[in-house]
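Issue 218. Parser rejects a valid record. Input:
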Amino acid sequence: MTQYPILAIDYGTKHIGLAISDFKGIVATPLEVLHITPMNGYDKIIEKISDICETNKVQTILLGKPQMFEISHQRTIKKIEKFEQILKNGIKLPILPYDESYSTVTAQDMLLYTSQSTKKSRKKIDSVAAAVFLQEFLNSKPQENV
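Output the parser choked on:
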């Protein structure tokens, strides 16, 4: 049985999008985008994710992984798996992989549809993408806690 709330992570080599579910596992909401920089490496990113988990009483982490449609996805998947191992070492919560293929494209379409400028949407696209695949995950589950 999946425990709520869930924190969804859309991992990228420069940006990590975060989204969170409500306590009943019905609605996904974009949370924020963490930026990986030389001054803000994995240690600080894991610390920030841990703080977010504690503050929001997160019970499960949903980590986006694309399907391997192309050879180029192999490198991306390896980077995500490396990040997943670092995450497991730093945060003691269940981590579920989830297919996040096309979530960024869907998020871009949603932001364009709502007439948000490209410049503004670029800052939040990763958190909206995380919310997209988190909502897909929530919609695929029978409502256990309602």
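Fixed in the parser; the record now loads. The helical segments are 42-55, 72-90, 103-113, 118-122, 125-140.
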